[in-house]
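Our preliminary data section would be incomplete without showing what the modeling component actually yields. Below, a chain of 140 amino acids is followed by its predicted structure, encoded as tokens that our downstream tools consume directly.
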Amino acid sequence: MQPTSTSSQVTGCTAFIGLTVGAFVFVWLWFSACSEPSKPPQKKAASAEDIRKQPERQAFIDSLVAQQFILRVEKTGSTPRVYVGTAFPGVPFHDKQTFLGVVLAYHETADPNVLGLAIHDGFTGREIGTLTRSWGLRLK
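Predicted structure:
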């Protein structure tokens, strides 16, 4: 008969149980973290300064419309659509981003759920770009 070691068998069994329980806990934590839907960060309400600037922003947007840079803006959910006109192509990129940034600030102040702007060609209706705070102006 061969000698057996009960102590090594118990240690091996304990290690197996420990690893099994550890793996189960890891998988359970991972699935519970993945199953909870992620919520977008809550935006805070507009500041008094932002609200004070709204008439200036509206006047600037009106001047962009008068110059055919923008034809119209449609508020559609969390992404307003800006339809650009004949002056849009001739404006340098940095100025486009600045001008459309005023439109975005106006709509963000009016509705904290606004995520960005969809930029559309005012004549074809085709989407030609987007403007968000995270990515800036992106034209197709």
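The longest helix spans residues 6-35. The two ends are 81 Å apart (CA to CA). Preliminary results of this kind motivate Aim 1 of the renewal.
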